[in-house]
Design a protein that fits this description.
Elements (H helix, E strand, L loop, with lengths): L3 E3 L7 H16 L10 E6 L5 E7 L2 E6 L6 E5 L3 H5 L4 E2 L2 E2 L4 H12 L3 E3 L3 H4 L1 H18 L8
Parallel strand pairs: 1-4, 2-5
Antiparallel strand pairs: 2-3, 3-4, 5-8, 6-7
């Protein structure tokens, strides 16, 4: 079974296909799974307004069309996730003090990343906290591995 799948009801737009490819590649680098992720993360491509929800479960991910009860929603350019893969890591953490990292940070200045859904902190703090932790874990997993130690 594939670790990253598209919903049967999903009209496979460019964002959904991009996310499927990036997440499948990330899963391959982590034993064909996405360990520890359990949240529903919404993603809106600011350049196309395409919306999807990433439902993480059982070390995999289902990509749904639209925003379907996301715990947290990230609004960014669609090229963000592939660019995160270019970040080197050291001891498993993304290294932003690198040419790829500085380039990515400069792109955030030009096209800021937005996060919505933080109101969930007041309603369900554990669910919101889990979503923020999962977003950080996903960032760590997406980052490249060519400077890793240990």
């Amino acid at each position: 079974m594939e670790s990253v799948t598209l919903s049967d009801s999903l009209n496979s737009g460019p964002l959904a296909l991009l996310l499927q490819g990036v997440l499948a590649d990330t899963a391959k680098r982590h034993g064909d799974r996405l360990p520890g992720l359990r949240s529903r993360l919404g993603f809106v491509a600011s350049d196309s307004q395409e919306e999807v929800t990433l439902v993480f479960h059982d070390d995999g991910c289902l990509i749904l069309p639209g925003l379907v009860e996301p715990d947290l929603t990230i609004v960014a350019e669609s090229v963000l996730l592939p660019r995160l893969q270019t970040l080197p890591t050291i001891w498993g953490l993304p290294l932003f003090a690198s040419p790829a990292g500085l380039d990515l940070l400069l792109s955030f200045v030009r096209h800021p990343l937005k996060v919505s859904g933080l109101g969930l902190l007041l309603i369900n703090p554990s669910r919101a906290g889990r979503a923020m932790l999962d977003a950080a874990r996903l960032l760590r997993m997406l980052a490249g591995t060519y400077l890793s130690h240990g």
